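input
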Amino acid sequence: MLRGSFAAIGTAVLLTIALACSEQPTPAAEVPQATPTINVIPTPTVVKIDPTTPPPPAYGYESLLKDLRSQGVEAEEVTGPQTQYSFSVGGDRVTARTKNAEGTIHVFEFPDTDITDTEASHVSSDGWMISVPLEGEVVKETIHEWMQTPHFYKKGALIVVHIGDDEAVLAALATTLGPQFAGGQTPAVPATKTPPPSPTPLVTREWKVEDIQVDGSTVTVMLRVYAGIDVRVTLNGAPADEIKPTVPVLQYVFLNVIPGQHTVEVRDLVGFEESKNVTVVLPNKIPNAIPDWLAELIRKLQAEPVTNPPISVTQYEYAGKTVYFIPQRCCDIFSDLYDSDGSIIGHPDGGITGRGDGRVPDFHQERSGGRLIWQDERTQEPSQVQTKAPIESVEATIMEIIPPQYSLVVKTGLPNACVTFGGHRIDRSGETIRIELINWKPSDAQMMCDQVYRTVETRIALGSDFESGKKYTFEVNDVVETLIIQ
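output
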């Protein structure tokens, strides 16, 4: 019974499935569809940038020579030591010749333009001082005593310097490099204006009394001015008879000053002032009955800075001959012993050891007589003493004219703000040239002074009396250089 029922049910199910399969609907007709439009976007060209490709080179030395020559300037490279102008690199010298002029330019090439811009920013607007920041707040100021007007140009990686006023050379440089960024300026002569009633002092004083020189009845105040500020310089309240704008040190000249003690006062418009005493004495005359060479030597000594102690010339008899003795001066400088013809026969004492050069070791024991020929009667500022100037560098230069003129460029240091440059003395004996450069410093060792190290560059003319191929020795304070003249 159960088996039959299961069979009937199975049949019915099969029948239903069969009917369902046989009743499929008729598919509808296909509707044609529009073909879509496809916009083809072109593949962009990709430019690959190689990070290792160097940028185009900055304007440099070779470009400068090429551009100068394209203007008809004969640019000739000068061999020899590089120029040092307080920049971080040395400069190459180039002689630039035009149709009517000739001048030397100094080319300083730096690693990149950023360094060039930084170094250029250290040059003062008038081109006479270069200030280089050191560690902390210390600034190294180099004052360059140019023989002529300085001109500074800048382009690309170059700083180009020309010392002179050759219009054709300056025009070629301006065309090639653009206008100068420093130099070429002569500060106006300071006026003597009445100070305002309520001055506002500057943070720092913009001037310094470099030196006060007395020559007979003439007093000259040497004033270094760092900025365009009006300064009044008087002697006993009276203005100077003459002002010489010898940049960067102005000279205030007072004429026909009577013997005695006088007061020099310096005052600017913003309230800074300084006064110093100066003594004028009757000039001591040069004796008549002395050799011409000795009279000329005494005139030379009178033009030099006052020594400590004052310099003198004494006549002695030594080794059967008449000799003239000049004692040693400041700072381990040799004494000098001349024969009757004006030749140095030795240095009896002085020098680093204090025992001279050993050529006349018995002079002090064997000399006889002793007659004072001349003594410098000038006086120095009692609050100041002399000291040897530290030597930073010594460079020999040649002016290529006929005959060639030789000079030394010596850079000396001013260890602090109270120290001033005192000048130089030069003496030559054959192939040995001795040069003494001195500073003035306060005699009071406890005086408080700003610790700012500065430098002074001095160009010392040596003349033309040198033989090519010969060796010469230059003794510059404690520095000894031996050069073969080319």
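quick obs: Residues 292-375 form one domain.
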